[in-house]
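Appendix C reproduces, verbatim, an entry submitted by the partner laboratory led by Prof. M.T., so that reviewers can inspect both the input and the predicted structure.
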Amino acid sequence: MADGFTTYQYGTEESQCVDLYRPDSAKTCKGLICLIHGGYWRYPHSKEQMNAIANSLRDDGYYVWNIEYRRVRERDGGWPNTFEDVVAAVNFISQLSLPIPLNVQIVGHSAGGHLALWLGYQQKFLKVRLDRIYALAPVVDLVASHRAQLGEDAVGQLLKTTPEQDLSRYQSFSPIDLLPNNVPQIVIHGDSDEYVDVAETHKYMEKARNLKCDVRYTEIRQGMHLDFLDPHTQSTLSLFNFLKEA
């Protein structure tokens, strides 16, 4: 164990790893939260982004499963391996023999918020049950984000094609095209986000409401994109408050 967590490998590649944070007492444990970091799905952005949040959640009584995955700009990163890695990392939870029910809450930020929402539609491939998904400043529309050139073609690099070449691939991995949802979602976004357009989240929520989906939304006044990496900001405190309700 190093820095308060134990690292597990769920595959043979260096990036196929996860950090497990254990609460002080399993008897009073509140459950397990899986964290998925953002960063345009690209290396070198990594799970270390979520360390401060992981420590706060562990101190509050949760097991925390902070996952890494193969990313764009490293070997075999991007479609399909990025997506397969996220599923494999979550499935590895079933091998841990933790003294708690295998009901998992997923928290994802930015590109990780996109992966978290997408995971909600993969239950038939998962060995654990997802109770709720928290998407923080998520990328919700891959077609719109590609057209807006989010992160200098981050979506095109992730999916290795364009909407004109393979629209079905975009729709298969785009949360707005996957609605209605089966796993309850909570979406939190700052109105001053400088990286991911909050207007796309508004469109996502409009479609979710029209379909009568189990999706709740909170918008943080003057909230910025990276606020969710700091456990003391209003953005992250909003997440913590939702977790207390679960």
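The domain at 5-245 is CATH 3.40.50.1820 (Rossmann fold). Additional entries are available on request from the coordinating office.
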